[in-house]
Amino acid sequence: METRSRTGQQVRRIEQKWGFGLAPIKPDVQRGRVEAARTVLATVTQGHQAALGRLDDLSTVKGLFTRTHEKDQWDWFTVCAQLGYPSLKEARQTSGTLHHLRRCLRDANWQAAAAAAATLEKIGLPDRLRDFVTGTSAPLNGHGFVYVLSTREARETLKIGYTDRDPLTRAKEINSATGVVIPWGVRGAWMVPHARRVEAEVHALLADYRVRRDREFFHMPFSEAARVIEEYVVKAR
């Protein structure tokens, strides 16, 4: 947003209070999402009767997982944290299977619906939804995260770091620091063991893009950084 000062100069005002992906969820919206999660949880664990008359609840939960892999909404990372940081593969599979389950229920194809529910149970959806409903976080069990941040104004200036804690909390800490004018948004986060070591090795792989040797800033497309990190994480498993 630009305004004109008393001297006639154009001054750009920063209105956003949080980085992209980090928007808080309004209480009424969260209540609706929790109710939808309860419906889906009952449908997967108890049978299709729980979803009768409430098929839109499946679409709501599908939308939550779609957010985490499309990364195109202001609250996508907030939702990702609430869901316990599902992997990209898991989020896509869950979203697609929920879409299929809704279609089966709509068409009264109970056998196919039962198979879809079994797939969701195997993926681990019930545990994620129980934590989502209760607002609890799954333990990290010694794992940490490598994360990538940027601002919407300088999308190819990436901050690549690590944390042994919840990356949502870490991102908020970074944005609350003195000197941060434009909030950082989360572009991606990968759960890994030995996060500090992984961060150092990722930094080495991306050394050609590093802005300063003593800072964790890189100038490069996010897609390339994500590709390198994803390949490293897959090989390290």
Question: Ranges with pLDDT <50 over ≥5 residues?
Answer: none
The radius of gyration computed from the alpha-carbon positions, rounded to a whole number of angstroms, is 20 Å
Number of H/I helices: 9
Strand content: 5-15%
> Portion of residues in helices?
40-55%
Q: End-to-end distance, in Å?
A: 45 Å
Arithmetic mean of pLDDT = 91
SSE succession? EEHHHHHHEEHEHEH
**Cross-sheet strand order for the largest sheet:** 5-3-4-6
Question: Mind summarizing the main beta sheet?
Answer: 4 strands, antiparallel
Alpha-beta content class: alpha+beta
User: How many separate domains make up the residues?
Assistant: 2
The number of E-state strands comes to 6
Shape: elongated
Account of the 3D structure:
This protein is an alpha+beta fold. It folds into two domains: 27-134; 143-236. It is built from nine helices and six strands. The protein has a four-stranded antiparallel sheet. A two-stranded antiparallel sheet has the order 1-2. Helix 1 packs across helix 2 (55-70), helix 1 packs antiparallel against helix 6 (125-134) and helix 4 (88-106) runs antiparallel to helix 5 (110-123). It is elongated. The protein starts with a strand and ends with a helix. 34% of the residues are buried. The mean pLDDT is 91.
